[in-house]
């Protein structure tokens, strides 16, 4: 499922593996939508600020 990160505006994909972890391990609600990229969720620097 493709989405844009709310914070850094990066184009991201909510992969099947990420979905499985969110819904089965963390027990997130099935109607929840991903808003932040993995980097933002983990507290890392945004994609736009990473060195090339």
Give an account of the 3D structure.
The chain has one domain. The protein is 27% helix and 12% strand. It is built from two helices and two strands, in the order ββαα. It has helices at residues 16-25, 38-41, and strands spanning 2-4, 11-13. It has a two-stranded antiparallel sheet with strand order 1-2. The longest helix has 10 residues, at 16-25. The relative contact order is 0.28.
**N- to C-terminal separation?**
26 Å
Stretches where pLDDT falls below 50 for ≥5 residues?
A: none
| SS-derived structural category | alpha+beta
Radius of gyration: 12 Å
Gross geometry: globular
Mean pLDDT: 81
Oligomer kind? single chain
* Total count of strands: 2
- The ordered string of helix (H) and strand (E) elements is EEHH
Number of domains: 1
The number of helical elements comes to: 2
The helical percent reads 25-40%
Main beta sheet: strand number and arrangement? Answer: 2 strands, antiparallel
Task: Please specify the SSE layout and strand pairing.
Elements: E1 2-4, E2 11-13, H1 16-25, H2 38-41
Antiparallel strand pairs: 1-2
């Amino acid at each position: 499922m493709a989405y844009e990160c709310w914070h850094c505006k990066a184009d991201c994909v909510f992969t099947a593996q990420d979905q499985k972890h969110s819904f089965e391990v963390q027990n997130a609600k099935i109607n929840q939508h991903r808003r932040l990229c993995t980097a933002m969720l983990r507290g890392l620097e945004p994609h736009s600020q990473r060195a090339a």
